[in-house]
User: Fold this.
Amino acid sequence: MKTGIHYILKILIFLTLTGCVDEVTSEPEFDPQIFITGSLNAVEKNATLRIQRTIPVNSTTPDFINNAQITLYTKDQQENTSVVTKSFSVSDGSYQTTAVIEPIVGNQYWVEINIPNEDIFRSTPETLKKIIPINSITIVDNIPQVNFDDPEEERNFYYLSIIYLIDFNAVDADELVLNDILFNGNKNAFLKPRTNKFFKTLSVSLNHINSNTYQYLTNILTLKDQNNIISENENPGELFSTPPINVTGNMMNVTKNKAALGNFSAVNFDTMTYSSSATTN
Amino acid sequence: MRLPTRHYYLLILVILISLHTFSQTKISLDVKNTPLYTIIKEIETRTPYNFIYNNDEINEYQNYSITVTETEITTVLDLLFHGTSITYNLKNKRIILSNKNLNLSTDKNSIKFTINGTLKNATTGETLLGASILIKNEKQGVISNEYGYYSITLPQKEYTLQFSHIGFDPFEMQIHLTEDQNLDIELYPVVNTLDEIVIISSKNSNNKTNSVGLGFSNLKSEDIKKLPSLLGEADVTRAFLTQPGINSVGEGATGFNVRGGNIDQNLILLDEAPIYNSSHIFGFFSVFNTDAIKNIKLYREAIPSRYGGRASSVVDVRLREGSNKIWKVEGGIGMLFSRLTVEGPIKKDKISFLASGRKSYFGLLIPLLNDEDFKNSKLDFEDISLKVNWKINATNKIFVSGYFGSDIMQLNYTTNSSNENNQKERVDLRWKNRTGTIRWNHIFSNSLFMNVSGIYSKYNYAFSSLNVFGGGFLNSLGPTIDWRSSIENWILKPDFTWYRNAKTTIRFGMHNTFHKFVPGIVDVNEEGRNNFRLNTERGLEIAPYIEYEKKWNQLLVNAGLRYSWFANLGPNSIANYDTNLPKTINTITEITDYSKGKIIKNYSGIEPRLSLNYNFGKKQSFKIGYNRLLQYLHLVTNSNATLPFDIWKPSGKHIKPLVVNQISAGYKTTSKKNAFDFLIETYYKTFNSMLEYKNGADLFVNSNLETQLLPAKGYAYGSEFSIYKNTGRLTGNINYTYAVTKRKTTSPFNSENINNGDYYPSNYDRPHTLNTTTTYKLGKKWDVTLFFNYQTGRPITVPTGKIIVGSDPFLTYSNRNQYRLPDTHRLDISFSYTPKNKLKKWQNSWSFGIYNLYGRKNAFSQYHSFNLGQLETYRFSTIGIPVPFFTYNFKF
Assistant:
């Protein structure tokens, strides 16, 4: 997606007739790392994680880790710490709690992952936020707008997922991560994607997340945008690019006392489905 | 009769000029034991002659005797003063008496007098700053200050004074110093044709006005104009980049880096007013109009204590005052800019003015895009510099100057969406620099000079966007926004210079600044969005300073001390964080409200400065220096090149002041015939309390910026080698710099440290830099200049792996700045053609050439994308082709 700044720079470079982009061959060294991502899902009452090693940039075969030992912890508002579960099923690097868990709003949750013969990882505790209900979905200029009441008392962070469906088949999707700095406490707060897409039905979830997860998801979406860069004759936005972002969040390699790739979030969310004839929660 | 001091010099001059016109007259006298004043009165009564003398020198009550009949006046005077210490000079019926014994007195050294005055350009009347006043055969001298003023105190004696300034014919005069003297001297330019190259003559290449110096660079408009330039616009920033120790992230980046410092560590002053964004068009062109500039001095080390507030360098730009003798108009027409300067006397020799402006016409070329998307778009910049100079009387002067620069980009375009339902968007982005300076020069006495400056500067930017479908300028903000931000300064700066004697100068004063930061006022005219105002911040900075400069024969010492105190002031609301956890929104423990004027947090520090310069004869000098500087303002940006809407933030509760210490040493030698200067300099710098940024820092519209920042420290070291050729048809310089600059984040929470808290190269760590600038005079009308630059590629961060989440691949990256782009190099050429129109007032010249002559594609950055699961790597070059340019200059 091009932004206004892109267009400004495009015109500038055009006027100076000077910029150019060349494709080059690149064979960077491969530096294997562990990547852990997951979440505590308060609505579905489970926790899921994905654990894999990074692979060379031109490889297409994921390197899943299936022997990790995971412990899910919680701390209640009286500062009492307890183990929620250590029981996870695993398949192709995806782990899921085997029993139903009962997440409690206000409690903190984190995981500790021990990968045998490797390192121990731990996520920073995240507080399970309350659900922010979706009030309605309206369509403005063919763009879905998700309406809700933003709580006033604190800075809130949101992750909005919209799946566009035609005949019950997902045809497109949008993800949006935003804080409430421009609508804090607004009873008519809304989130909406930037552009319109074809759809007949929408499946929407509004996730109330923590600041670390907000940062992590922002990083993820930035990387996703970068994946979609198409080679052009010029890319003047590169003039103002920031250092490449790593997919770090709240995960720590406690063995080596350093940041690790990945994140474990505690999320609460509301969902709503929208079709041209009806809207359902 | 007592001769007024300030007329003494003029009288001597008149005497010398008119000696040949003297006609003898005869007189008869017969007096015995008569006071001298009676005899003088008698002679004045009976002849057309008048006597002039200083009764501090001549004892007019002493008795004399003389008897002459119809004798020539010269014989009378010879007889009268025979055997006495009195000597005389005749001029235009005036007889000037002096006492030669004063020169021979054994206690002559205890009687001292002061010579002071102002050095000016004889053609325009503009003052000459940095000119040299040398006492020949005495190894003494002074330099004129920023206002052309000088003062030197010496024992009474006869002296030969040499006044010189680069680009001007030196002037020598002898004086008989028996009292305080005011000498306003005018120097004539060596050449006075339009845009012609001034070749440093062998006469003055070893004096202190030479632009070649240890730790600093003096840049003149003439020198900047002869450098090849992008699109023909002489550019101050690009001229800096030809100097040793200065580099940048890459072509097109805003600003410059001095010896490992970030770009916000450069104090850029335009007539003492700070400039916060020194470029037009996102960094492609400097805000400084070279037509309006008198002088630029850039300090890289041993920064005098009168400067402060930035930690790595000072760029002191002085505007011309305008001719107070004749009216002048000059200008130029370039490919994409034009400029015009008008100057002249409002009241001759009393009040002068200068108005100089530039305007771009990029906008005229937009139709060439032949794209409906950009119809009705604007893209232009303009600036104007104004100055009025009023010489009230011999001891008071007023200068009023201002700069107003603005950029505007207004685009109406269409974005594509997946369903081909194109969306109309509008972006309006503009930014402005404004400064105003009023200065009062006052001479309290021959040896005490004062300047008081009142300064206002403001940098503000605004953008608005309209997307009728939503999304907005920066995607997540909203459909329609108006954003405004600014930084303002009010400065009061009294500054005193006491020329204690010929060897000692003491300068002292106080720098007082009130800062106001408005980081963002956002209006979103839409239901469901709130108008938003990021908290305004205020800062008060007070810094008394003193400089002491002393010469001991070959040794020149400049020692300074500056004490700076800074307070971040209320009203404001500041978040407090759980000190056991990294700063995030979720670790805020409470918000503290501060009332108006309440000190939220204050810092202070002593900033010693020292420079020792030892001259080995006339040709060699060795210098060592040390400086410590504190910086209380920070530019918050983590992009490769800064944007006009990056935020300035003051030190406060969560941001400490940056502290930089630098030690440096240098050696300079000049060849026998002054044809060459050779310089070697080396330095080591440390940086404490720098700002760095968390991985993926979100700096835009963030009311808790401290949650995105990391404390850091760093160091830089390097050596600079320079050769200058000053004479002959071929002139120029070669500069080679070896430099290293590294930093590390120092968060107590290692989870947020960059590179696990290890040192890594800064974005502009480019160890090897070679610059050569060569000018060859092809004849009386033609010059050719070549500029070549070679640099190590800048550090980058590259992918070292990949993860796959769902069907989406995501790159994982190396340690920050672990790899490098390829080395860069570039050759520019420019020609200057100046037809000689000796009989016509209208003068003109052409300059033209090619920037990036062989079309080198110097990579600015490297980025990646996936295409069918395969990584593709691209390198972006800002200027990847030869860019021709031309400019037509005129003057009348």
